[in-house]
Structure formats: C-alpha cells, structure tokens
Amino acid sequence: MIRNIRVERIAQTPIEQQQIELVERKCIGHPDSIADGIAEAVSRALCRAYLEECGVYLHHNTDQGEIVAGESLPRFGGGKIVRPIYALLTGRATKTFDGINIPADSIAVEAARSYVKSIIPIMNLERDIIVDCRMGTGSTDLRDVFKTCGGSAVMRANDTSFGVGHAPFSETESLVKGVSDYIDEVYRPKNPAIGTDIKVMGLRDGDDITLTLAVAMVDRYLADIGEYVETIARLKETIEGIAPKFTDRKVHIDVNTADDISNGVVFLTVNGTSAEMGDDGSVGRGNRCNGLITPCRPMSMEATSGKNPINHIGKIYNLLSTQLANTCVTEIDGIDEIYIRLLSQIGHPIDQPLVAGVQVIPKAGVELAAIQPAIDAIIDTGLENIGSITEKVIRGDLKTF
Amino acid sequence: MIRNIRVERIAQTPIEQQQIELVERKCIGHPDSIADGIAEAVSRALCRAYLEECGVYLHHNTDQGEIVAGESLPRFGGGKIVRPIYALLTGRATKTFDGINIPADSIAVEAARSYVKSIIPIMNLERDIIVDCRMGTGSTDLRDVFKTCGGSAVMRANDTSFGVGHAPFSETESLVKGVSDYIDEVYRPKNPAIGTDIKVMGLRDGDDITLTLAVAMVDRYLADIGEYVETIARLKETIEGIAPKFTDRKVHIDVNTADDISNGVVFLTVNGTSAEMGDDGSVGRGNRCNGLITPCRPMSMEATSGKNPINHIGKIYNLLSTQLANTCVTEIDGIDEIYIRLLSQIGHPIDQPLVAGVQVIPKAGVELAAIQPAIDAIIDTGLENIGSITEKVIRGDLKTF
Amino acid sequence: MIRNIRVERIAQTPIEQQQIELVERKCIGHPDSIADGIAEAVSRALCRAYLEECGVYLHHNTDQGEIVAGESLPRFGGGKIVRPIYALLTGRATKTFDGINIPADSIAVEAARSYVKSIIPIMNLERDIIVDCRMGTGSTDLRDVFKTCGGSAVMRANDTSFGVGHAPFSETESLVKGVSDYIDEVYRPKNPAIGTDIKVMGLRDGDDITLTLAVAMVDRYLADIGEYVETIARLKETIEGIAPKFTDRKVHIDVNTADDISNGVVFLTVNGTSAEMGDDGSVGRGNRCNGLITPCRPMSMEATSGKNPINHIGKIYNLLSTQLANTCVTEIDGIDEIYIRLLSQIGHPIDQPLVAGVQVIPKAGVELAAIQPAIDAIIDTGLENIGSITEKVIRGDLKTF
Amino acid sequence: MIRNIRVERIAQTPIEQQQIELVERKCIGHPDSIADGIAEAVSRALCRAYLEECGVYLHHNTDQGEIVAGESLPRFGGGKIVRPIYALLTGRATKTFDGINIPADSIAVEAARSYVKSIIPIMNLERDIIVDCRMGTGSTDLRDVFKTCGGSAVMRANDTSFGVGHAPFSETESLVKGVSDYIDEVYRPKNPAIGTDIKVMGLRDGDDITLTLAVAMVDRYLADIGEYVETIARLKETIEGIAPKFTDRKVHIDVNTADDISNGVVFLTVNGTSAEMGDDGSVGRGNRCNGLITPCRPMSMEATSGKNPINHIGKIYNLLSTQLANTCVTEIDGIDEIYIRLLSQIGHPIDQPLVAGVQVIPKAGVELAAIQPAIDAIIDTGLENIGSITEKVIRGDLKTF
C-alpha cells in the first residue's frame, strides 16, 4: 500500500532571518527533566522485563508521574535536605500476561531510584527522596488493540495523534544544546559545584544572542560566597569561550541573574537541583524529543518520555519525524529548512500514517521537484523501518528529552 | 521607560494556504483538562483567601498536580467505579504571612473537589475520587522577589520565560473550538449520554477537513449498544450540521472510530471521563491558553493553569500575548496573521519585557509601516495595563485551557 | 464432637477488693476510636456488598488503617482547619469472585467518609479530611481456607488466636462507661460545645475514685474563655451528679487538668477531636470490644474492629467471650467474677475451639460444682450458635470498641 | 516529696497453678514488629539528631505508622516481589527549635530504611519497599509542657496514662521468649531459610504446653517442597531439644500447621515476612515491652515503641515498671509474683506518679511486711533515677517490643 506522503514548499522567512528567536533547554537535573528521565527509565525497564519474561513487549504507558519538591537548607560547605523529594510513579502497565506475573511496580520503583542515582550521584537516596508508586493497569480497549497485533510485524496506532520534527538546528538551537552538552560531558566532571539542574534560555534578537543560564550550584563544593561568585564567573567565561563554535553572532552570557550577592541571595542547593527546594516537575512539560523547547517552531504537546515504544504514536512519530528531518538535510543537498508531521489514525498500522506532511524551504535556486523524490524515499523507507525506533529506544540509543 | 517592542513582517505561507493543518482540543473532562481545571481552581481559591485574610495576593504556584486514573466497570444502564480516581495536589503556597495563617491545604482540597463537582455533576464524590494534597511552601528566593514588590504597582517577573499568542483562528481552529463549545453549551445539556471527556482532532488536508472525535459515553443514559450507536450517529449528524458555520470546506466527521461494535468494544464510561479507567492527566499537558493545541503554530510549553496570576510569566505572558494578538486583528485592518512573543527577565518589572516580538503577515497590499504604529500602541497599552490580566484571571473571566 | 471447655475456680482478690484499679475509655471521636469506627464501617459495608452481589460473605480484613493528624487553628467563636486529617485505608479485600467484580476500594472510601460524617456531623468533609485508600487483596492461603468452607455452616479459623472476656463490670468500669455513654447520648446533644474526642481515665484507690476527663471542646460554640471555663464547670457538675448511679464510693472529677486558663492554654478544637491537631490514631490501639481499656483485667491485643466477622478469631472470639461472660453472670446466680478465654487453631471449625478456658470466682459460699454445669451449657450453646455473632456484627448490633 | 507507693498482697492463684495460660510473641520480622521497630528507630534517630544539633532532646512522637502489605510471588529457589511493601511514617516531631532546623522527615526516612535493612538483610530495599513520610508537628499544648521543663532535671508527664509490668516470667513465657531468641540468635544465622516473621503461640493446659509456630520460610534457600518439609521438621526437632531448658512440663511443638503439603499450600515467602504478601502491621499492636503478649496478665494498651523517651508516660512507665518488677524478684527473696502499675498525671513531674500500685503474691510463709520495705525502696530509687530509662532507650539498651 502506497503511503500518503505530502510534500509542499512553503514560503516562510527562514528562522535565521527572523528578528526574534527563542530557544530553551532544561538540563538533566531540572525537575521536569528528572520526571521525563524517570518515566523513560521505567518504560525501558518494563520493556526489558517483558521481553525476558514473556518474549514480547507488552502494553504500558508511564508517561505521567510527578516530582513533588522537597525542602532543603543549603549552606556553603554542605547543607542538608529537610524534607525528601517525593516522586510519584503513575501510568499503567501490564502486570499479568499468559499466566506470567510481571512485577511491574517493583520494577518501576527500582528503575526510578536507579535512574536518579545515575544522574545525581551525590544524592543520598536513603534520605533525600521518596519514590512512591500508584501504577494501574491499562483500559481494556487499548490493550485489545495491542493484543490483536501481538504477533504481526507492524503495530497499530494506540491513538489518533501526531509527531513533528524539524531540521537543521538553527545557530541558536545548536548553541543552547551545545552549551548544555558541553557542561554535562566536559565541564561538570571537573567542576562538581555545577549542579545538574540548569535552565538555558537563548534569545536571538537580530544578530545578538543572549544566553541566560539558571544554574543550581552544589553547596558542598563551595566554601563561601566568594567561591560561588568565582565559580559562576569561570563558568560564564568558559561558555563565552565555546560559543563561537556554534555561531559567529555576538553572544552575551548571563548566569544566575536573579542572584543578589550582597544580600546572600544565591541559587545554592544541596544536591544541585531545585527539585529539593520548591520546584515540582512533571513528565512532558520540558524539552521536546530533540532536547529543546522551540516556541518559534512547530512542536508537539505529547510527552515523548515514558510512552511505550511499541505502538504509542506520541512517542514513535515524534522520534521518527525528528530523525527523518535530520536524514533529509544530511543526505539531500538544497534544503534550508524541513518540517515533518506524521499523523496516525487509531487502530491503523503505524507504518501507514493518515498523512505524512512535509514542509520544505529549499535553498535559493533549488526547485522542490528536484529534491522531492529523495524526500519521499527517505520518508517511505523510514516508515518501512519504523520498528527500528522501538529497538533504539529500548537500547537507549534515542534520547527523548 | 520605553518598552522594547519589535515588529517585523514575515514572509510565510499563511496557515490557510498550507497543505496540512493539525488542530486538537481536549475538552473539559479530559484527564489533562481536569488537571488544568483543578490547578486553576486551587489558584483562584488561594487568591481569594489571600485577599480576604491578608489584603494582598501572596505567592503560590499550583501548576502541577496529577490525575491518577481509577478503574471502572461501565455497563449499559449504569456501571460502577471500582477504584476511585486519585488526584494529587502539589505545588506550593504561602501558608503564613505577617502572623496570619492561611489554611492553604484545606482550601486546595475544597477547591479541587468543588471544581470536579461543577464539571462532572454526575460523579459521586464520596466514592469515585480521592483528592490528596502534598503542597509545599515556596523556595526562599522566589518569595523574596515577590515580597520586595508587595506594595508596588508592578510586579517583577518570577522567571526568565515567555508567552506566545496568535490571531486570528484559522477555519480549522474555529471549527475544533466551535464544535467543542457547542457540545458543552448546547448539546450535552440535552444529551447527557455525551460525556465531558472528548478529544477533538482536526486535520485539514488541502480543502478537506477531517474531524475525529473520541467521546466518552455515559453508560447510565444508554440502555444498550443500539442506543449507543444511535447516539453516536446523532452526534455525528449534529456536528455535520454546524460545521458549515465555521468553514465552507468539506468536513468529514468521525466519532469513536476505535469502536468495534460487533464485538462490543465501545468507549463507554460511568462518569463520562477516561480518567476513571486508565488515562492519567497532568497540568499543562493539554490545551494552550487559547483552548487549542496547534502544532502548526508557535506554542509555549508553559502550563498556564495553576500558576499565580500576579508575577508568573508562564501564565501572564501567555494570556496577554493571546489577548493582544486578538485585539490587533480586531482593531486593525490589514492583518492576515499576527504572532506575538513576550519574553521576561527574572526580577524585572513584568510590564517591561526584555522584548515583545511581533511577527505580522499583512494582508495583500498592506504595508507594514501603515499598521505598525497601531500594533505598537496596542502592545504598549496592553503592557501598561498588565495588572488587568491578574484581575480577570481571579474573577474567572479568562480561560486558561 | 464434644467441645473442650475447662472451668476452674481461681483464688483471686476480687477486683473490687484490690487497692488500685485503672480503667480507661477513648470516646467515639478519639483518633484511635475514629480509626476503629472507620475500620468497622468499611468491613460492614463490604459484607453488605458481598452478600448483595455474590450471595456470600467474602474474605476481607480491614483491621488496619491510620488516622494521620491534621493541623488546625481553633479560635473562640470558630477557627479553621489548616491541614486536613489524612485517613489511610489499608487491609485487604476480595475484589473479584466468580466473575463478579466488587468495587471494594470505592466501597471503602464511601463507608469511611459516611462514617466520619455520622459521628462528627460538624466536620466539613470537603476540606477537613482526606480519605485515601491502599487496600490490597488477601494472601492466597487465607483465602483458600475461606473458600473451602464457603458453603458449610461452620467456618474455619483464619488463625491460631484467642479472645478474652469478663463480667460483670466493676463499679469503676461501669462508671467510666456510663459517663461516656451519658455524654454521648444525653449531654452532648444539648451541649454541642462538648466534642466527641473525650478520654476518660478512672483510677480507684481504695474507695476513692478519680475520674480524669480530657475533653476536646468545640470552638464555634464557645464565645470566649469565660464560656469555656463555665462549660467545663457545668460538665464537671453534671458528671458529679450522675456518678452516684454507678457507685457509692467517693468520686472526684477532673476535667481538662492540663489547661492553663490564665495563659489561655486550653483544649480547644474546631471539630471536637484532637485528630485535627496533632494526635494520630490507629485501629486496635484503643478500647477493647467491651468499650474499655482495663489493664487490671486480662485483655486481648487483637483489634476487634475491621476484621471480617466470618472467620476471624481475633474478632469473633473476643465478642463471643465477652457476650458469654455477660450471659453467665446474668443467668447464673453465684458468680462474683468470670473470665472466659477462647483459643482457636488455624483451619479448625470455629465452633470447636482448641480450648475454652473459664476462670470463676464464685460468690462466698458457692461451690464451683454447683454452677459449673450451667456455665458449660451457656458456653456450649454459645459456640453452637457462633454464627449469630457474624449476623449481629453485620447488622451493627455489636459494638467493637 | 514522698512518693505515693501502695503495696498490697493479693490473694490470687499464681499463674503456674492456673489451668490455662496463653502467651504469644511476634518475632522481629512480623509486620507489627516491623512497625514497632521502625517507630523506635525513628525516635532514636531523632533523639540523636536533637542532641547533636540543639543540645537537648526535643518533643516528638512517632508511635504510629503503618506497614501496608505488598504482593509477592514466592517460588522455591527464589521468587519475586510484585508490589513493594508500603511503609507510612507518621507521628510528629519538632522541626525547628531556637532557629535551628532539624531535618526530621529525612532523618525518619533514613532511620526506617536503615532499620529494615538491619533486620531483613536479604530484602532489596531498592525494589521491595517504599518508605513514605507524612510526619506533622506536635500540637501546641504538648510542646509547651515540654518546653517549660526543658532545662530541669525532671520532666513532666505528657499525659494521664500508666504503665504496667510483672515478674518473674512463667515457664511458658520463658519458653516462648526463649525459643524466639534462640532462633534469632543461634538458629537462623546457620539456617537462613527460616524467615524473621515468626509468630509463637504458647498454650499451657495444665502441665501440657503446646507451642504453635507460624514461620515464614525464605524461598531462595529452599530447592523444593521436600527441602521445605525437611527444614520445618529440623526446626521442630531443634525446638523440642531446647524446650527442656525452660520447663519440665511436656511440650508439644507445631510448626506451620496450616500447611497443606500435598496441595503445595505452604508458608513460603521471598524475604521471610508476610508483610510482603498480605499482612499489614501497625505500631503498638504486637508485643508489649517485655517482648510478649500475655492475655492472662495485666497489660497496657499503650504502644511503647516510637514514643519519645523523655516525657512520654506510655513509654517510660511501661519500661520502668517492667524493670522494677524484675529488680524486685531478683533482689528480694520471697516473691512469687509481683505486678507494678505506675499512673501519671498530666503536667506533673514523672518521678512523682499519682500512684505506684504494687501487687505481690509472696511465697508461701512470707509475710508482706517482711518484704515491703525492700519493695518500697526499689521503687523509690527507680523513680528517683527515672532519667536513666531515657538514656538507656536512646542507647538502644532497652527493647520496646
């Protein structure tokens, strides 16, 4: 069956030529990101358990869950957690299948705790966090849809929903994501005072980019406010140093602008995340699956994290459309910008979206007709191999936030 | 101080001329909407209590919270709830101020229960829902920002964040919103079998619009599957009848397409919401503050519901930008589409955004220069009177989802 | 099969002749009693549902559960609840039987809320209490025992356990219970300022009885501390007036002795129970099934409330032994004191205890041999008709605390 | 001030000469004992923190709390936990004092988890248990009482309450406690298949003692039902071997009598406690502070575990009266049985009970007058040094269950 792929050229001021551009990223330890990460960790752990115990992936959906903030008393040299963070795992999972019991609740609790340990190793899990679980079992109709196609190669959509993706990243997008990655991968390992809860807000106004970072600092690694100020200054400098890798535009860096140093009002934390002291988090409220929040671009409201990677459109189509957009700009010359939207119809095979809508801004002088066949082919092949998304997710090769 | 308002003309294929358009609405009883509505009801109740007891609005933020699905056994003629819905109220609120104790937790629980009763009057609150509360108190720095300007006219931004709004609605947007409103206001009151949990998904493919509705039907008002089928058919017909009010395009209506009538698999519920049987909900995961999810338009990820309406940018700027966009298209001739983005800087007065970015597609033949002063003026005045947003929200004159 | 009934005469100083006697009662609104009452209300509601939906009583055990105190700000004329009481329902219940689903969780929540309303009508259930539920399903082996004898007349013991009862009440016991009943039935209806949470502690030292009452007073019915003092004084006087009905001994009454009137430290509450402001409660921690705590008498540690009345020894044997002791002293002349202990063996029919141990202090001049046959007969008949306990419990004819 | 000590001789059939005697012990891993142990561990951790951070012990009361059973699938060779145990910490604690914040919630969670680990080392705390916390702060009046005497040597009673203790243990009591201790200290270390959740029920009928043990067996250490049967048999034999150390009477041992071996119905668990599969537990529902439940003896209903050891009568007087009774029988010749009851009056110094009531059964030929002065002296000295109870509790030298 031929897939319904619609490619159109749109007249649109390319993002780089628009006056204002906004880009945001909530890094790994931001409360919303913690919620996303836990949701995804639980889903992956369930997938592994289902495969091991039942030989198939079973229905589940853990794309909900709440991080209720604790209370802390940070202090230079090392403060304390007063009231633990409360993490509530919800969603639903298959708990029995074909006579086999799958300990979904225990798996979920363990996966969540283990995930938190992995991203915030300095947290004392015995006293700084409570992981609770109120996971249910799915509603009958959804499970039926799932069972129906248990043995076949192509799953059926769990919902009428859609995914969107775009490529390539703008300079501001690359900068925001690049700075976040640099801190995570290069800078924090050597500078443990930099917490994992960082919000990076990028504003491009014409050719001036302002990067505003709110960085939760870790109290035990800072002797006093002097060291705090110094550490912030060094981070600012470092980011100024790497910014030119991503853009030739003028980049202004602000870090913890809400601080009032003379009054001792600073963004100091015990474990490096504001979840310990007032900021709640929820799945699906932070980054989209490309790692960014981009209000100047089309976005899906669907939480990608925690959804099952077998038949859940809100997850699979967001991941796939993003991947396809990237493949198009990588493999095809002549694309300035590309936006891909995949729309499912509940109960239909997921490799046959109701429509795959593609919007292209070709490079100057490029005719749409010249590149359309290549785009068509990439999308057709991507849908053909849609099962690979599932596998990559379970292996952890695809990030969801 | 002059406000930083940047108006630019963008070359962009107007939405109505794009090939594909997607629009979604989660109606009042959808789990995500229930979460939004509770969050907003709690915030409004707190505002009233603060004003009454302390004479000022105090810091709070209840834009989190989780609806954990229950379990039900719907049956034609009337089924039963097996496990109650579990609603967790979180967020934070000021609980003491100037020696006065504000019973924030009790207020929150009462507001939530009362809200649910108001939107789902058929629900038996004594057995169908558990409303729990784990609300904390805010982190110090945020409250300080708040206290600082307690007496002044203009609040300071709680965060570096932004809001976006657009106008006018496209035909598909008007249709989706219009159908939802029609059911809520006109059709359900006479047809109680139509539950409040409806998801309306609109897809425009060129000049063909497909409206897919997933409607939770209420079992007690349906004698058997025959009446179910009939009721669905009548609803479909009714919508087909009103669609021409919103568009001349061809509109195809699908209702509960996942049903498998011959096998008795239908979307039947006890109280008219899937929250009773498997679907969780979260604040901020559903409609944007214009009542829609519009992945082809710029959107903010911020939850508008539940945030305090005093200084919380994620709420105020989303509401204001939407309102300003509407005012522009109403009062100014010559605008095809307008997008407004307001960006705050933490700690700065909220009537002085870092930038107010405006993108306009003028009507054919209209010069930007001709309409720009009027746009500037509307935005400037809107920011000048930003306090009116707060008042409208507390009075319930502005919807947030 | 002959029942193993062992009657022995014990040489023991009768309670009335002992120097010191202690008797305590926690009235209906004491946190422990609220927990007991909820547990029992849930069990009875489940029994009714099982009978109605399945035709038989099914396994359940709700003799656990916790009342976590809230926070209140009582004030003369009417204060407020700041944080609701949190009531957690636990235990386990049969949720499916023979293809029928029993909505045990919803039943439990409704029964608990309805019970609280019945005993504390002034409580605003929409904001003063949260009723949560984490009820499980029973462990397999217990249910098997139960199923085995589903159709037979005599149940099998769920456990190796025992019950104890004594009769008659001593004067101090009668006084403590009588004062509590008088307040509940006669005095409070006309004096609503007297809360339901009263702890009555009776100490008899020779022929002097001191009755110490801690009475939670209801703020809305008291204009000021003067009225408080007056109301307390009137209550004291009233009790002094009725005490002679129960004893000729000298009775000294103390009410709210911990008050410090001059400093305004009084036992004032919003709803008449300390559960609203700091005192937690648990099932089985308060009164034994005769309504008293009697540390000078043999007692069972088993919670009577909430256990299923079908095969749960901890409930049935405590109720039965108390009833049998009362029957013996009522119907047989010559008994000064009687103590009955029934010991079960798990899996054996409940009408065949391992041993029914009876200790008697005959009246002066009475030979044990003269009354033993009558005692034997009463106990034998009581065991024969043990099923009537079940029925009485379900109808609410037997109090459990 | 002279203390009010009342010693009386009572005519009473000594326990060993009564026909029937019942004694029960819930061992360390029984759900009620787990609850007790957690409550006590939390209280001790708070005491240590208060002393360290504030220099004084502060008000708290954690003698509540609930163990909500999980769900498990035991299997010979090693099964799994399906749903974690849910432990709810409640009660109240001082959280700020003199400007110092004490992280009571975090301390409680950590103490609870650490305690569970210590008694059930085979439990995987990352997936087999959820420790939640809803601890409040105390009601004002109680704390005032406490504050008043913060600096003085002698605390004031928190309540009008009492404690009771007796000595010496009867043979049956010694046997029940001795068997339990033997298993804990000697047998289980070499026989890990014996779980920590053991209920020992002792019935003495004349000179025949029946000891019924319900022992949760640990699945991972048992290959099959054969090994299960064998292990039970060996345990039975072992207990038969040690019983003569405690009594010359005939002792009959029953272990897991509810098993139905041929149908595979056995008491098998994953972690050695029924809390994992259906049995809830509560503080104060199990053993009294002498380690036993003795319905033939006077008992207090007060939970000893978790109460603060500074001024909480329900704890201190139970521990002290038990200790004093033991001292009397150890140091004074001529006592067959002694029962001590200490009764407090709220607000009065705890070393001055309202009455210390002592009941003695002297040995044949011993006059009360001959031993009374020695008894008086022991009790007087014990009350004089009542503060040592506090110290011993905090050091962990006194068991509370």
TrEMBL record, chains A, B, C, D:
Family annotation (InterPro entries): AdoMet_synthase_2_family, AdoMet_synthase_3
Organism domain of life: Archaea
Stored Gene3D superfamilies: 3.30.300.10, S-adenosylmethionine synthetase, C-terminal domain
NCBIfam families per the UniProt record, alphabetical: PRK04439.1-3 (NF003364), PRK04439.1-5 (NF003366)
The protein, known as: S-adenosylmethionine synthetase (MAT)
